[in-house]
């Protein structure tokens, strides 16, 4: 079995638990909901990251990326922003849930994919792999990084961000009077 597949009706018949919906992709037990409430949280987190990083989408010293992979793209907002800023780049976002927008820049596409299975991308395919917000979703980080490095061209970069580290830094820089806005 491959890690990507065509969209079937069962994929959008999400599992429901405690009033929240979750991915129904190949019976994967994802602990992140995919409902509108979670999508809103992902959008807010993206905006917070942009504010914290002074508008930068990534930290890696990538100057002219041509092929980019956004693993665990969620709503796709990061991939869409990247594609909008780097018009010559081809951006592919992958996720368990098809919750990305239909209208995206022509250089941006999305695939339904399970990052815990074998990646279907060829060796040396990407200049840049972006990973954010997958804490608790990856079952074997060593294998995950092996797959990412296999897909990166020589001289390419992996940019990884985790929520706990980010939130701790945000709380350090947010002033006391604005902390609860």
UniProtKB/TrEMBL annotation:
GO terms for molecular function: methyltransferase activity. It comes from the Eukaryota. Pfam families: Methyltransf_23. Keywords: Methyltransferase, Transferase. InterPro entries: SAM-dependent_MTases_sf. GO terms for biological process: methylation. Belongs to the methyltransferase superfamily. LaeA methyltransferase family. This is S-adenosyl-L-methionine-dependent methyltransferase.
């Amino acid at each position: 079995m491959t890690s990507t597949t065509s969209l079937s009706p069962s994929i959008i018949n999400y599992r429901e638990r405690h009033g929240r919906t979750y991915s129904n992709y190949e019976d994967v037990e994802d602990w992140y909901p995919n409902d509108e409430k979670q999508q809103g949280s992902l959008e807010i987190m993206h905006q917070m990251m942009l504010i914290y990083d002074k508008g930068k989408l990534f930290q890696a010293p990538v100057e002219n990326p041509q092929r980019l992979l956004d693993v665990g793209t969620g709503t796709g907002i990061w991939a869409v922003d990247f594609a909008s800023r780097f018009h010559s780049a081809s951006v592919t976002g992958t996720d368990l849930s098809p919750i990305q927008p239909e209208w995206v820049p022509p250089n941006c596409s999305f695939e339904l994919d399970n990052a815990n299975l074998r990646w279907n991308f060829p060796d040396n395919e990407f200049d840049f792999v972006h990973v954010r917000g997958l804490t608790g979703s990856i079952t074997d980080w060593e294998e995950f990084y092996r797959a990412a490095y296999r897909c990166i061209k020589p001289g390419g970069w992996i940019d990884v961000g985790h929520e706990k580290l980010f939130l701790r830094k945000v709380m350090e820089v947010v002033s006391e009077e604005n902390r609860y806005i």
